[in-house]
C-alpha cells in the first residue's frame, strides 16, 4: 500500500517544475508547517476578531510535541505583483496605502492599519508557500489563511485579501504544464469571494459546504455548493462530505487541493450554526486529507474561520487539522 501511494505521489509531484529557493534549503523531513510571526497585528481592545489565535496554534503544536521547530517553514510577504493575479490594481493600491473609507472598513470588520495590511500579506504568502511545498512534499499546513470572503475589488467579513485565490492563481501560472486546482472549503460560511473569482476559470473547481442560513446573506455560485441546515451534527456532516469528495477527485482530477479547514462548524463557535464536536472536526480533516493524498494529489491546508473569546480553546481547535495531517503524514509514509 505504501509503495503504491509513494509511486502515485511521485507521479503527481513530478509536474512541479519551479520551486522557491527556500524549498531547496529546507532539510526537514516531517510534515511542513507554514508559520510567520507576522500573521498577527494589533487590533482595538475588545475587537471581535480573535487575532491572538495564530501564534497560539503553533505554540500548542510545539508544546504538545505534535511537531518540532525544524518542521516550521517561514513564508515571504506576498508581493503586490503576486496579489494582482487576483485583486484589482485600484483596490490593492487603496488597501496598501490606507485609502479605505469608513463604509468599506465596516464591511471588512477591521479598522485599517499598516499592521493589518502587513499581516494579511504574510498570511497570503503563507498560503502560497503551503501550496508550493505541498506540490513538492505532498502535504503542507499553514497556521493561518482561508480568507475566502475577499473579492477582487473589496474586502468583506474579516477577509481583506483572498489567500486561497492568490495561491490557486500562483499554482496555475507558475508551471510550464497545465494545472488544475480544487478548492475544498469546509468553513461554515460560503466561500463567496473565491467562488466569484473563479466562476469563469475552468482550471479551478470551487467546492463549498456551508450553513445555508449563515453569512453571507447573498451567496455566489461555486462549482459545487452544498448548503446544510442549522444544527447539523458530526455523522450527517461527515457523510455529506463523503458523498461528494471522491467523485469530485475522480472527475476533475486536480493537481493540487487547497483545503480550508475552518473550525466554525463547531457547536461552541460564536458565529457557526452547526453542531460538530472536536472529534467530528478531526474525523472530517482526516477523511479529506487521506482521501486526497491516497489519490496521489498534494494538499495544502489553511485554518479558516473559528470564533471564540477563549483564545487557547480556539487555537487548540484550529490545531486539529495539523494533528490530523501529522497522522496522515505518518500513516501514508510521506
Ligand atoms: Zn467562516
Write a concise keyword list for the protein shown above.
Arginase, Chain A, 43% helix, globular, binds zinc ion, His_deacetylse_dom
User: At CATH's second level, what is the architecture?
Assistant: 3-Layer(aba) Sandwich
| Secondary-structure element pattern, one letter each | HHEHEHHHHEHEHEEHEHEHH
Q: Percent of residues in helical segments?
A: 40-55%
General form: globular
Structural class: alpha/beta
Mean pLDDT: 93
CATH names the topology as Arginase, Chain A
Classified in CATH, the superfamily is Histone deacetylase domain
Distance between the termini: 12 Å
The biggest beta sheet is recorded as: 8 strands, parallel
GO molecular function: histone deacetylase activity; hydrolase activity
Pfam families: Hist_deacetyl
Domain Histone deacetylase: 47-311
Organism: Stegastes partitus
Topology, element by element:
Elements: H1 2-13, H2 21-25, E1 33-34, H3 53-63, E2 72-73, H4 80-83, H5 89-97, H6 102-108, H7 114-137, E3 139-142, H8 163-173, E4 181-185, H9 192-197, E5 204-211, E6 224-228, H10 234-252, E7 256-260, H11 278-293, E8 299-302, H12 311-318, H13 320-331
Parallel strand pairs: 1-2, 1-3, 3-8, 4-5, 4-7, 5-6, 7-8
The structure holds zinc ion (ZN).
Domain Histone deacetylase: 47-311
Protein name: Histone deacetylase 11-like
Keywords: Hydrolase
Amino acid at each position: 500500500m505504501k509503495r503504491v501511494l509513494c509511486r502515485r505521489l511521485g507521479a503527481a509531484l513530478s509536474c512541479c517544475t519551479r520551486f522557491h529557493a527556500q524549498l531547496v534549503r529546507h532539510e526537514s523531513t516531517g510534515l511542513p508547517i507554514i508559520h510567520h510571526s507576522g500573521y498577527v497585528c494589533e487590533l482595538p481592545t475588545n475587537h471581535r476578531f480573535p487575532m491572538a489565535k495564530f501564534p497560539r496554534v503553533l505554540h500548542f503544536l510545539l508544546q504538545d510535541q505534535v511537531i518540532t521547530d525544524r518542521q516550521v517553514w517561514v513564508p515571504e510577504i506576498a508581493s503586490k505583483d503576486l496579489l494582482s493575479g487576483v485583486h484589482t490594481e485600484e483596490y490593492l493600491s487603496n488597501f496598501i496605502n490606507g485609502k479605505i473609507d469608513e463604509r468599506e472598513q465596516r464591511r471588512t470588520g477591521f479598522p485599517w492599519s499598516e499592521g493589518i495590511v502587513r499581516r494579511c500579506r504574510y498570511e497570503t504568502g503563507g498560503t502560497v508557500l503551503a501550496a508550493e511545498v505541498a506540490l513538492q512534499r505532498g502535504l503542507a499546513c499553514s497556521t493561518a489563511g482561508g480568507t475566502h470572503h475577499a473579492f477582487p475589488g473589496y474586502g468583506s467579513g474579516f477577509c481583506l485579501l483572498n489567500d486561497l485565490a492568490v495561491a490557486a492563481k500562483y499554482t496555475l501560472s507558475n508551471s510550464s504544464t497545465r494545472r488544475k486546482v480544487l478548492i475544498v472549503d469546509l468553513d461554515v460560511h460560503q466561500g463567496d469571494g473565491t467562488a466569484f473569482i473563479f466562476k469563469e476559470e475552468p482550471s479551478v473547481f470551487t467546492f463549498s459546504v456551508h450553513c445555508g442560513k449563515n453569512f453571507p446573506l447573498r451567496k455566489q455560485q461555486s462549482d459545487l455548493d452544498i448548503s446544510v441546515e442549522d444544527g447539523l451534527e458530526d455523522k450527517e456532516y461527515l457523510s455529506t462530505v463523503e458523498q461528494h469528495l471522491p467523485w469530485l477527485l475522480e472527475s476533475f482530477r486536480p493537481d493540487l487541493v487547497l483545503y480550508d479547514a475552518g473550525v466554525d462548524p463547531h457547536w461552541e463557535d460564536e458565529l457557526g450554526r452547526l453542531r460538530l464536536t472536536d472529534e467530528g472536526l478531526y474525523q472530517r480533516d482526516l477523511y479529506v486529507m487521506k482521501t486526497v493524498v491516497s489519490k496521489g494529489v498534494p494538499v495544502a491546508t489553511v485554518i479558516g474561520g473559528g470564533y471564540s473569546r477563549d483564545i487557547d480553546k480556539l487555537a487548540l481547535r484550529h490545531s486539529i487539522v495539523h494533528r490530523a495531517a501529522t497522522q496522515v503524514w505518518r500513516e501514508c509514509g510521506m
